[in-house]
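Lecture notes, continued. The same structure-token format from the folding unit now serves as the input rather than the output. Read the line below as a description of shape only.
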């Protein structure tokens, strides 16, 4: 079962997974199910729910018990019984089916419109009667009050076949050259047909006169839509007495109120493909429209997208199971898809177990596992020596890392660490030896990781045992013997860092309490080094000093917290001083930035201002330039406007001009001083 989510709407694909060939024997099928995990875990809701090559149409009987589908090749119809979750019958036909209609509540009366102008009737036992219409048909509808079949197709006429009299009646003459689809309103039985010219003609079956005409091709063209050619009507569906949805060949869906000639809303699929099917979901006020690529569910009042589905193969038809959240599609593939969307409604009564299954999946969500890919972080790539592959097609960026081919990962790991298997083998052997040693009589030994924490737990366990003996209560299990916390005393990654800021602030009395444990720990290590047996700690003999140390006096706790904070501030100050010394010792090197060809260098300081300026409209920018004096707008005699711009000087040019100006002033002062000195010397000579 595949699960997808869009707009927080979960969609469960019940037909995902591989299907087994029909010609395989039961023995081989059982053998494959044992070997292949995917086949064993798949959900086959209805057995053999598929066609040999392609399925074209799919419908559900009014009682909800039977699902009927037509397809090729050879042309055939298959009926599936939902109560038995299997196929009930299969009938082959002479030519391909364009569309079909179930006239009864079950499968006992069916009408098929075939591509060879044939109309074939089937009863419960099989083929009943076959007739022919004058022109090729494309769609038909059944009028229940008069028992008439209305056929539309490659003709301007609408052919009427009365099933009570068993003969053709007078045709309806329309203004259209060809008609594609038709439908009859289930409330007041208004007959509507969609033409190739993009119009919808509405007829009254009682008087056989046209009562309305809608130009949908003109209404489907809006300012945002881009179309090629004249849109024709490709889908038509009534909703209640007043609403009607129309689908065009260019991918637009128009929702009409029959009292108005303008559409209430126009929804574009943006694929340019003909709309194949339109369904209504009344509980959530949704419209389900589908082309050959996508199924979109959107609100009929606002047009906001509810969710969408994109199957792997092209869609031919969509069927919504009544009063449920199940959706079935006929595709350009042998397998017909079944989707379950819990938000739309509950599962049908014949597969009510789907509700329990989806609830369990929502309670225990599983992350997606890619069997052929390995997720690695940037640090892992650097350790493997593959950091140069970032940006290439071999790595696919995802969240805080990358996906890479599992084969490439194994090769790189073998080259980076060729002795990894040997280390893994030694570790496994060591674990096996330790497991066998655990069965022997052992000394009381502390673990390698978190020794102080283990000693604390042993002391607390001893105190609890003493109190439980006095109160005659059962002893609680020890954390050291619990398998769930075993890794905490084996893996060095779980080592408690007592020098961290969090530990020292959250445990202000740990320095006092840990002194006693450190002394005991040192004594135990000396005993282990000498090979002596470890004696158990005496219980219930705590001195007054120990009791005072372990007391929870509020004043002592506050003083200890203040002391720890003061120490942390001093350490932080020392670190800052060290960083400042390092910064003074390090020599700054110039950084060079490469400018792409065809781009201008822009100042780093003015980049934010220029980005804000570029977001403004042209009018605002012109007003700003006019205020700064770089733009002058004046009216001409002809009546037009003349704009004069002054080029802005860059920062570099401004600095260069200031430097030149300063140099000029300096040269003037030098000349004046030289002239003054020369004149003073001449005067002195004349005086002598």
């Amino acid at each position: 079962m595949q699960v997808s989510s869009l707009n927080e709407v979960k969609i469960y694909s019940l037909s995902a997974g591989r299907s087994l060939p029909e010609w395989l024997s039961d023995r081989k099928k059982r053998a494959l199910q044992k070997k292949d995990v995917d086949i064993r875990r798949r959900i086959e809701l209805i057995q053999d729910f598929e066609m040999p090559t392609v399925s074209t149409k799919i419908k559900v009987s009014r009682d909800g018990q039977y699902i009927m589908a037509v397809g090729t090749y050879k042309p055939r119809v298959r009926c599936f019984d939902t109560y038995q979750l299997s196929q009930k019958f299969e009938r082959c036909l002479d030519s391909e089916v364009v569309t079909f209609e179930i006239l009864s509540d079950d499968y006992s009366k069916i009408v098929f419109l075939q591509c060879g102008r044939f109309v074939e009737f089937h009863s419960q036992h099989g083929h009943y009667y076959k007739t022919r219409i004058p022109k090729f048909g494309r769609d038909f509808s059944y009028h229940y009050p008069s028992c008439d079949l209305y056929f539309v197709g490659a003709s301007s006429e609408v052919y009427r076949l009365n099933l009570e009299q068993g003969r053709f009646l007078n045709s309806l003459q329309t203004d259209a050259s060809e008609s594609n689809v038709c439908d009859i309103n289930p409330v007041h039985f208004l007959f509507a047909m969609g033409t190739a010219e993009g119009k919808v003609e509405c007829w009254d079956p009682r008087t056989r006169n046209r009562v309305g005409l809608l130009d949908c091709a003109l209404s489907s063209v809006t300012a945002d839509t881009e179309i090629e050619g004249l849109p024709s009507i490709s889908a038509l569906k009534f909703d209640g007495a007043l609403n009607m949805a129309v689908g065009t060949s260019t991918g637009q869906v128009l929702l009409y109120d029959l009292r108005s000639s303008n559409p209430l809303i126009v929804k574009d699929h943006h694929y340019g493909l003909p709309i194949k099917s339109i369904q209504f979901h009344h509980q959530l006020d949704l419209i389900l429209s589908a082309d050959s690529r996508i199924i979109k569910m959107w609100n009929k009042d606002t047009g906001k997208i509810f969710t969408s589905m994109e199957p792997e193969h092209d869609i031919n038809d969509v069927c919504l199971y009544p009063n449920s959240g199940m959706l079935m599609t006929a595709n350009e593939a042998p397998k017909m898809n079944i989707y379950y969307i819990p938000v739309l409604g509950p599962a049908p009564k014949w597969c009510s177990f789907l509700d329990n299954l989806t609830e369990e999946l929502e309670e225990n969500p599983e992350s997606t596992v890619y069997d052929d890919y390995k997720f690695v972080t940037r640090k892992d790539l650097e350790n493997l020596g593959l950091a140069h592959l970032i940006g290439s097609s071999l790595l696919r960026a995802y969240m805080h890392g990358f996906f890479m081919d599992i084969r490439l990962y194994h090769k790189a790991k073998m080259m980076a660490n060729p002795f990894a298997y040997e280390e893994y083998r030694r570790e496994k052997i060591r674990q096996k030896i330790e497991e066998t040693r655990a069965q022997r009589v052992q000394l009381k030994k502390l673990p390698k990781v978190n020794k102080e924490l283990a000693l604390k737990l042993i002391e607390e366990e001893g105190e609890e045992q003493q109190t439980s003996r006095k109160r005659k209560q059962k002893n609680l299990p020890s954390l050291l013997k619990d398998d769930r916390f075993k890794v905490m005393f084996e893996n060095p990654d779980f080592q408690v860092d007592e020098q961290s800021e969090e530990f020292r602030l959250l445990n202000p009395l740990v320095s006092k309490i840990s002194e006693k444990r450190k002394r005991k720990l040192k004594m135990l290590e000396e005993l282990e080094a000498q090979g002596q047996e470890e004696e158990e700690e005496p219980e219930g003999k705590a001195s007054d000093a120990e009791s005072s140390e372990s007391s929870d006096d509020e004043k002592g706790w506050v003083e200890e917290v203040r002391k720890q904070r003061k120490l942390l501030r001093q350490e932080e100050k020392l670190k800052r001083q060290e960083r400042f010394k390092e910064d003074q010792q390090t020599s700054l090197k110039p950084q060079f930035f490469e400018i792409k060809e065809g781009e201008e260098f822009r100042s780093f300081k003015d980049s934010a201002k220029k980005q804000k300026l570029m977001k403004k409209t042209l009018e605002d920018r012109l007003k700003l330039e006019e205020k700064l004096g770089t733009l002058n707008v004046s009216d001409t005699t002809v009546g037009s406007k003349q704009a004069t711009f002054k080029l802005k000087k860059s920062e570099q040019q401004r600095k260069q001009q200031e430097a030149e100006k300063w140099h000029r002033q300096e040269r003037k002062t030098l000349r004046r001083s030289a002239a003054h000195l020369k004149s003073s010397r001449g005067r002195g000579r004349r005086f002598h």
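Point for the exam: The first strand starts at residue 2 and ends at 6.
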